[in-house]
Design goal:
globular, single chain, 8 helices, alpha/beta, 258 residues
Length: 258
Amino acid sequence: MKLKGQKALITGASRGIGEAIARAFVAEGADIAITGRSAPELAALEKEFSQQGGKCVSIVADLAQRGAVDYVWQQAIEKLGNIEILVNNAGIGSSANPRPIIDYDDNFWELLLYVNLTVPYLFSKKALPAMVERKYGRIIMTASVNGKVGLMHGAAYAASKHGLLGLTRTLAMETAKQGITVNAICPGPVRTRMNNLRLEHEAKITGKSIAELEASLTPIGRRLEPAEIAPLVVYLASKEASGITGQAFNIDGGFLMI
């Protein structure tokens, strides 16, 4: 029960990596607020966690909409109290509109940068005052290995994740003496709905099958599962990780060994 009694907000938690993190947090004793766009999936998770004895509040919101951050934050603190752990996980993938830069959709660029970078910035600003006052807090960003290398036909995604690492490191520097840690995880290929779409795009442009691509993505010969991402997030969210801040951890089956 590494997170017993802690209160956490997890964005993008209705499926994929966010759902896996939510499950791991509940198992470790945290009270959680989860947000996403899918009301049925969020409601099902809230019911499941409550039946297990956990406290879970679900908040339906589209973070691409201006004002959604304010709404989610207010709901979370009203129903849980002060948030000690913020997991900025929500994001849009490159597969939503993959194009080379010369043909890139400017509106998609603006949307993706807003959701993937500005929204974590805004949530962090919401969380910091109370964390500073208590001299304790954990902020964890879901970045990507593409926050360290480029991505073919995914300029906005790579740029947003590079920017998220810059935000992570700056926040870590500014809060290091105040009992707050700020870190990022950098998943590689993970079996999610978003990554499935990315694989379908790569299959089209390379002429390879999904199976061929999947086997060649990482040195371990497969994609990771969302549940393999969550344990590190639990550790970074725990009191045990008080000496770790400003770091960007690859979880990628050896895809990027730097």
